[in-house]
Amino acid sequence: MDLYYEVTGEGKPVILLHSGGADLRDWTFVAPILAKHYQVIAFDGRGCGKSPSPTETANYVDDLLAVMDHFQLDEATLVGHSIGGRIAMDFRLTYPQRVSKLVLIAPDVTGYIPSQPFTEWMQKIQAAPNVDRMVELSLSACPYRFVMASPQKDLLVEMAKHNLAKMFEWATWESVWPQPPAIERLKELANQACFIIGKEDALDAQRIAEYFKEVLPERRFIEITGADHKPTLTHPEEIARAITEFLED
């Protein structure tokens, strides 16, 4: 298993999957709280942080399977943020026996068609002349308004610069995902999932949240006031408390 990881704490295993343009530092403030009660495994996704860059079409679900097999885990709780949530969902739908519970923080979902403004925003970022400009365009958007005004701004900027620069080392940006897409199968997740989102997150994230509202019990749909797309950095105590309460339910 060639992915970089860090392990803290003891107890039932909880695996943390970070958001896009980030690495395991996404969990800098959440992991120590969870580690008081659980074995917490955080890892850098392929092409991020200290993990190697993709040399062929990436399969992030298979990478997560490799992490679990490396630690000889029959099952674990998965906590996924943004694209990490997408990976966690697809893993649960592919290997349901390996997942005890699922916590989704502002997740992406396979099969969701992004809005035109989001697509145009991403195209603008990709067309930027250098990494500094890419980071500036990325983090000046609404989904980062609160975190960029917080003490965690420097950490977020450093993560974004490191991981956007690293993307230029990738042999390919292509990835493969299980079929059928998760958006068609959300009801299969209802008995095991908890959904967390910042009330000030982007329109597309809120649209995805609406899909989950239809299938999840109300107590497992949690909105955090004053949080955007990075509640892991700005509201770690609330995130950790929501995860702990869900796991002990």
Automatic annotation (TrEMBL):
Write down the Pfam families for this protein, in alphabetical order.
Abhydrolase_1 (PF00561)
Q: Which domain of life is it from?
A: Bacteria
InterPro entries membership: AB_hydrolase, AB_hydrolase_1, AB_hydrolase_fold
The molecular function terms in GO held by this entry are:
hydrolase activity
Keywords, ordered alphabetically: Hydrolase
Q: Where are the transmembrane segments?
A: none
Q: Where is the AB hydrolase-1 domain?
A: 12-236
What is the name attached to this protein's record?
Alpha/beta hydrolase
